[in-house]
Amino acid sequence: MSNKLEKKLILKGAIVAESGIMIGGTNSAFEIGGTDKQVIRNPINMMPYIPGSSLKGKLRSLLELSEGTISSSGRQKSYGPTHNPQHIAAQLFGHIKHREDNNNESQQASRVIVRDGELQNPEEFEGKTELLHTEVKAENSIDRITSAANPRFFERVPKGARFNLEIIVNIFKEDKNADKYLDTLFYAMNLVEDDYLGGSGSRGNGQIKFELDSIFEKDAEAYKTDGKGKDVSNLIPIHFKSSK
User: Exposure of 71 by Cβ count < 10 A (0-12 exposed, 13-18 middle, 19+ buried)?
Assistant: First the structure.
């Protein structure tokens, strides 16, 4: 990979909660009356947010699952990200040096940067939820022998919450698959929409949808001048276009 950056594609929009989202912070089960699992919050304003690492990891893992490129290693077959530079997921999200790489390609940093998503509409939940901008979901696990119920309480961000979305894709001068990277990112976003983000997705949590407001292309000249770049929002697929 060339180390000369040609341009950046900057995608901005929102992540919309279609169901409650559990992105865990710390446990508080030791507190009397506390929830078994809390959501992660900004320690300054105490608002819940979506870590960029959570979204990025989900995008990559689902892409690798759909491409059949999940890597296995070790005696106990530990499964993790692919580091084969021939795989599109490794090209897009980065890889370390691969022992089977005959071209001796060095490790590559991720082309994709995913920002933390701050809550956009906290005012819609003020005074309406049990906790600050979040709700408590009660679940029961059942003892298969005695049929006794073991209640558990989980904190989650309620349906209707909107979070900032910003994803940056770095394109380098000698990239051979430059046109494919953005399409692959959209493909991975589609996969996430039909899966879940956060925990307990099989129990109804974590359904989201993406809404994109804009895509800007910034090359070196843009950064040297006004820094605005070229509006290429026409590249947004109809499915992801914001309803605003």
Answer: middle
What would the pLDDT profile of 11-24 be if each residue is shown by its tens digit?
Answer: 999 999 999 998 87
CB atoms within 10 A of CB 32: 5
Positive or negative, the Cα torsion across 186, 15, 85, 77?
Answer: negative
What is the bridge-based pairing of β-strands 112-114 and 71-73? Answer: unpaired
pTM of the predicted model as reported, rounded to 2 decimal places: 0.85
Q: State how far the Cα of 81 lies from the Cα of 201, in Å rounded to an integer.
A: 21
Encode pLDDT of 54-68 as tens digits. Answer: 999 999 999 999 998
Neighbours of 97 (CB within 10 A): 12
Place of tokens 């290429």: 232
C-alpha to C-alpha distance for 239 and 234, rounded to whole angstroms: 12
